[in-house]
Amino acid sequence: MKMRSQILFAQLPTVIIISLITIFFIVILSSIKEKSESILVNNFKSILAMQTISKSIEDINDFYINNPQHDQSPSEKVKLLESTIERQLLAQDKNIKEPGEKELTKALHEKWDTYKHKIQSHSLDPYQKDGNLYKEIKQLTQDVMGLNQDGLLRTKENLSVFISNYLIFITFGSILSIIFGFSLSWFFTGIFLSPLSKMTEIMSQVGKEDKITFLHIKGSDEIEELSHEFNLMTNRLEEYHKGSLGKISKDLQTFKSALDALPDPILLLDPINNFIYTNKPAYRLFGFSEYIRKTPSLFHLTDQWKETLIRASNKVLLTKSNFVPDKTEDTISLDKGNKKKFFLPWAYPIKKGSGNGLQEIEGVVIILQDLMRQPFSETSKTDVYETVIHEFQSPLTDIHMAIHLCVQEAAGPLNERQKEVLFAARNKCDYLEKLCQDLLNLSQITSKSKILELENVDLNDVVLKLITSLQLEASERKIFIHFEEPPYLSKIKANQNQIQTLIGNLLRNAIHYAHPGTIVKIKLREKKKFINLSINNKGPVIPLVHRKNIFKKHFKVPGQSEERSGLGLYIAKQITQSLGGKIEFKSAEKQGTTFWIDLPIEL
Fold it and tell me: By the 8 A CB rule, do 351 and 323 touch?
């Protein structure tokens, strides 16, 4: 039998139990439905019939009180009311259920026949004794309604007791059934998987004994096939073991060659600080001779080297973790010819797994980092820089989205204090995302190896798109944006992303520093061979003492820019200069602050 079939068979008891519980639920619900219908069909219809009869007899009596001409034939209205009473009495005869209801219905028939006979014989006197007949009919209808109302309440109480009893029965029955079904499934699963347990036990002994282990297990088709494949693997391992010593020697030589190819000196030490192996850069660094192979020890080194390396090795052996050196304390110097070199010892444990699941320390690897080696190239630094920023941006975006969902109360309502904290966190995320973008832009600008793609850029279109994207931020700060579009504007040759960064930084600054309720004015015009863009806002004046530093990297005007990175204007100037343009500004109390750029139409 296939393992899949065995597993399905093991789950069959649970499926049967769940099916029986489902059928039982359907039966119970049908019974409750019938009980509910009995309330509506019998008692409720009797009550409605009596209400209709009572209202009709009342209307007839009122008619004869208001029309005392007994000798006239009954009007159409009276005939209609008589017909209604007759129909309701027939309906009542079919709905008799309660004890005593049949006698009351019979008496109601007799009183109505008497009342109707008086109407037809024109002898009805609603003021005299016929008034008592009217009251008797009314009282009989009230009595029948009272019986059915009591029956309605009694049936409801019986239904409640019925539901409560069955709920208790269903609860305990379901629990016992599920436990029983789970027990059966557990039992059959254990039977079907017992070959696997036996196989696991046998396989755990592989390698612990010198003898070859073979499996002879009967079970599902897949388990028997697995047992066969295991036996084949055991044969191959035995053949491999016989011829593996030569391969181990070859692998060891490959490992040594790999260590020798590394530029850093590497020392492999055993737990008592003797050399296991040193690569060629280490041989050249320390000037080891061949006799060191006979008496390998750290005592061949100077005292400073010996103490530092023994301290690093002992920390690794004690903590069973990596040793990270401190530049101020663990830097070691070595005079090599006319040059003095400095090294940092990084130490790592060589671990070997034991049979009890623990890892034993076989030795220590010490890598000597040459602090005088040439640093990364400019291209490598830029690539690493951008990679780190991108890796930082991804979790930051997730955090920002989570905070946004919390602010929107997607995870539940918030109190005012929680909203304040989340709004503050969201603002910090906005700041960090803007900082990441600024750093990426700065990296691209300062990278000399990156060639940017140039294209024809419509500055008018760029400004309109930026206004749309920043409109929400401006509205939150109660800032109005006015853009004076030119009637005609030539396109410039530039990189689209750089132009968006340049104008975006200037426009964001103008919105950020503008006073609430003021207008940010944007003008775009063409002057000879240049495109001039100016952005004006009414905000804090830039003090004269700080104006010479306004385009410097990370500069912030004291007291004005705590939430800014200080890179926006620096990046704007770098982009403008790379495009062959210029950027300037002026700041006055009444006129506000205006930044403008002149960009050449052609590079």
Answer: no
Q: Which of 352, 366, 351, 353 has the alpha carbon at shortest distance from 259?
A: 366
Q: What Å distances lie between residue 158 and 29, 151, 162, 163, CA to CA?
A: 15, 10, 6, 9
- Ordered DSSP codes for 412-481: S---HHHHHHHHHHHHHHHHHHHHHHHHHHHHHHH-SSPPPPPEEE-HHHHHHHHHHHHHHHHHHTT-EE
Where a domain ends, among 353, 370, 387? 370
Domain that holds residue 465: 452-600
Helix axes 568-578, 416-446, angle to 10 degrees: 30
* pLDDT tens column, 210-265: 555 666 666 566 666 777 777 777 666 666 555 544 555 566 677 778 778 888 88
Nearest to 445 by CA among 570, 327, 273: 570
* Residues 166, 19 share a domain: yes
Task: Could you list the beta-strand ranges (E) of 207-301.
Answer: 266-269, 275-278
> 478 and 435, same structural domain?
no
Q: The domain spanning residue 111 has which CATH number?
A: 1.20.120
Would you state the structure tokens that stand for residue 364, as one six-digit string? 């220590």
Within 13 Å of residue 121, how many CA atoms lie on the same side as its CB? 9
Q: What is the pLDDT of residues 454-505, one digit of tens each?
A: 889 999 999 999 999 889 889 988 999 999 999 888 889 888 888 998 999 8
d(CA 83, CA 124): 18
Secondary structure (3-state) at 213: coil
Q: CA-CA distances (angstroms) from residue 280 to 222, 261, 302, 303, 312?
A: 53, 8, 19, 22, 21
- Minimal CA–CA distance to 200: which of 226, 235, 225? 226
Q: How far apart are CA 179 and CA 296, in angstroms?
A: 68
Looking at 95-128, list the stretches that DSSP marks H as alpha helix, in order from N- to C-terminal side.
101-120
C-alpha count within 13 angstroms, C-beta hemisphere, residue 356:
2
Say which residue the tokens 């030569």 belong to: 246
Q: Are residues 57 and 175 in the same domain?
A: yes
Q: Are strands 592-600 and 492-494 parallel, antiparallel or unpaired?
A: unpaired
Output 367 or 131, whichever has higher pLDDT.
367
Rounded to 5°, the CA angle 35-36-41 comes to: 100
- Which of 105-119, 250-264, 309-323, 583-597 bottoms out in mean pLDDT, i.e. has the lowest? 250-264
